[in-house]
Design brief:
There is one protein chain. The protein has five helices and eight strands; from the N terminus they run βαββαββαββαβα. It is α+β, with helices and mostly antiparallel strands. The chain has one domain (3-163): Alpha-Beta Plaits. Strands 1-8 form a two-stranded antiparallel ribbon. The chain has a two-stranded antiparallel ribbon with strand order 2-3. It has a two-stranded antiparallel ribbon with strand order 4-5.
Length: 164
């Protein structure tokens, strides 16, 4: 059965330190105002029973990415070998259609107006030996870099949709 690398998130382990955000920005020199990975704070309940949970959100590299299908310029494609959704920035026109359809609201747009997002640093690390910086930085292992089946990956997508 085919498998792919994913960055999984365990909500119970996240302490909202934002280390994953900082590591990503520093490692990839992500411009100010753009966040390829972000910790979302989710408030639940009513006073006096208020609860704050978090979700570390980045591109899920979905099994069936709707952004790829929606892009009018075919600037997005999914690498069949590793499942990474890749961007051809020369083709991107900055229309934000990908953002409109993304269930995770992941696509980001910088000063050049073109889409950018997490690619799990797959071209910068040795996946079998290294972890992406966001994962390596996480002090509580709320983020893990693991290989999963496509069915497990779909379950992770569903879990993230439910919490965010």
């Amino acid at each position: 059965m085919p498998s792919q690398y994913v960055i999984s998130f365990n909500q119970d382990n996240c302490v909202q330190c934002h280390g994953c955000e900082v590591a990503c920005k520093m490692w990839r020199s992500v411009e100010l105002g753009v966040a390829w990975r972000r910790v979302k704070h989710i408030w639940e309940g009513n006073y006096p029973r208020v609860k704050n949970i978090s979700a570390s959100v980045a591109c899920m590299q979905c099994v069936n990415p709707v952004c790829v299908e929606a892009c009018p310029e075919s600037a997005l494609k999914q690498n069949p070998e590793n499942g990474i959704v890749e961007i051809d920035r020369d083709k991107c026109i900055g229309c934000k259609t990908c953002l409109e359809v993304c269930p995770f609201q992941v696509p980001q747009f910088g000063t050049d107006g073109k889409m950018q997002k997490c690619d799990m640093c797959i071209d910068k690390i040795n996946p079998s030996a290294d972890k992406p910086p966001c994962v390596a930085t996480c002090p509580t292992e709320a983020l893990l870099f693991v290989r999963v089946t496509l069915q497990e990956k779909k379950s992770m997508e569903k879990y993230m949709i439910e919490i965010i």
